[in-house]
Amino acid sequence: MTDRIAGVILVLLALWYGFGASRLKAGFGADPLGPKVFPFMLAITLFLVALAIIFRVDPNPPWPRLGTWFNLVFVTISFIAYAYLLVPIGFIAATTLETTFVSQRFGAKAWQAIVTGLLASLGMYVLFVYALGIPLPVGRVFGGR
To answer: CB–CB of 13/53 below 8 Å?
Structure first.
């Protein structure tokens, strides 16, 4: 029964996300596909996964231990903090901090988490800025807007 409840919640979330994507407006000279395509793909994927969860029910799903719930709450809070820190401290610093924190929550040693965070943030920065031409915030503390 818990699988079905989770599936229904995910279906509702997918519909809400898809509705939000449908309200996106393309600016002048925007990409021919527009800003709606990627969010719609995410909404459709989430919807299909939710249906799979609803119709392929595990008769006795294991519930996470209490420590896992704490990790989920801390990681959720960290993603909210990441969203607020992205513009003030920039993409590279915020993503390094976030990836380091999440890596540690998943059991990485401190040095492994730091290396992973730094390499992931630099790799994504190069990918988005230089390969895809998508500008990312440098950070107000570093003289950016």
So the answer is: no
